Amino acid sequence: MDFRSDTVSWPTPEMREAMARAVVGDDVYGEDPTVNELEALAAEKTGMEAALFAASGTMGNLLGILSHATRGDAAIVGHDAHTYCYEAGGMAVLGGIVPTVLPTDEYGRMDSAVVETAVSPDDFHSPHTTLLLVENSYGSKHGYPLPPAYFADMRAIADKHGLALHMDGARLFNAAVAQNIDAREITKHVDSVSICLSKGLCAPVGSLLCGSTEFIKKARRNRKLVGGGMRQAGILAAAGLIALTDMVERLHEDHQHAQTLAQGLAEIPGVVIEPQNVKTNLVFFSLAENIEINAAEIGAAMRQEANIWAGDLGGKAFRAVTHYWIGDTEIQQYLDTLRAILKRAR
């Protein structure tokens, strides 16, 4: 059983069946009917005019950034945002786009006043700020589901300074479900959003970049540029259709399982956790200073003793992620195994 990420989730039996019988065509020519259906559905669910199927969330974000900004431009981004920390520096390496990095608070929010001051002056010595990057849910801060009001504030700043606003919405639907709102209440404030199908929604591959028709036309060209054009991609899109139609409404189950795990962890001596911070499906915790073994050693022991893959973040820190294939039985086994290991370590 694997708690490292929701990216490890397998496709459901219904997805496998749909993939086997998918109607396909050549998507580079725009002729795959299943891809076209998926893109239309993603656009509808995010309140956008159009969408583009991409191989991964990193690709979706990269295409969004490249389609909003160009070489020598600057993009404002949080210091622990996925687009800055975990996407191989793509905006700089492939786009020549300079990240302007700002601190975020305990929930992943950039301060509005600081964002305003980060917009570069109209001076040829400075990179030209053209893009503001946001994220929801915020992966580095407990997967916190940021409210629409925050993005309304970012929208106002973007409009004032003529910036495009792109959202890394890899877990957008987790954020929406956690707040009991429609995802469009969040995305109505942004110009584009990348949503991931292969995390909590259980599809094996794929993300969708959503935005205006003109924007997606530009992104399609950039997808070709980075080698992302796929041919009979309807086999993958078929699973994505089920992800968007059947899997979103059940995400609250993953959130409840994460809270169950957090409450159980709080009862284990030697574990440091704040269950009130767990709002979606990400559970961050650490070991007390008096515990002499580290996260890597505990992770190895959990694999050996119970075939449990734990999310070792280095030092004494962990991340555990719930998803479709993690239920009450798996959570109890996780808790029992960790409790036994820590008891021996004391």
Task: Kindly report the name of the CATH homologous superfamily of the largest domain.
Answer: Type I PLP-dependent aspartate aminotransferase-like (Major domain)
Classify the secondary structure makeup into a structural class.
Answer: alpha/beta
Number of helices, where a helix is a run of at least 4 consecutive DSSP H or I residues: 14
Low-pLDDT segments, ≥5 res:
none
Give a short account of the largest sheet. 7 strands, mixed
Spell out the helices and strands N to C: HHEHEHHEHEHEHHEEHHHEEHEEH
What is the count of β-strands? 11
Verbal overview:
The protein is α/β, with parallel strands linked by helices and 346 residues long. It folds into 2 domains: 10-246, Aspartate Aminotransferase, domain 2, CATH 3.40.640; 251-345, Aspartate Aminotransferase, domain 1, CATH 3.90.1150.10. It is 43% helix and 16% strand. The chain has 14 helices and 11 strands. The strands form 2 sheets. Strands 1-7-6-5-4-2-3 form a 7-stranded mixed sheet, sandwiched between helices. A hairpin with a 4-residue loop joins β10 and β11 (317-321). α3 (57-68) packs across α10 (213-225). It is globular.
Please provide a brief summary of the model.
Helices cover 43% and strands 16% of the residues. It has helices spanning 13-20, 33-46, 57-68, 82-85, 90-93, 112-118, 148-161, 172-179, 184-187, 213-225, 234-247, 251-266, 295-306, 328-345; strands at 50-54, 73-78, 98-102, 128-135, 164-169, 192-196, 207-211, 271-272, 282-287, 311-312, 317-321.
List the helices and strands and how they pair.
Blueprint: H1 13-20, H2 33-46, E1 50-54, H3 57-68, E2 73-78, H4 82-85, H5 90-93, E3 98-102, H6 112-118, E4 128-135, H7 148-161, E5 164-169, H8 172-179, H9 184-187, E6 192-196, E7 207-211, H10 213-225, H11 234-247, H12 251-266, E8 271-272, E9 282-287, H13 295-306, E10 311-312, E11 317-321, H14 328-345
Parallel strand pairs: 2-3, 2-4, 4-5, 5-6
Antiparallel strand pairs: 1-7, 6-7, 8-9, 9-11, 10-11
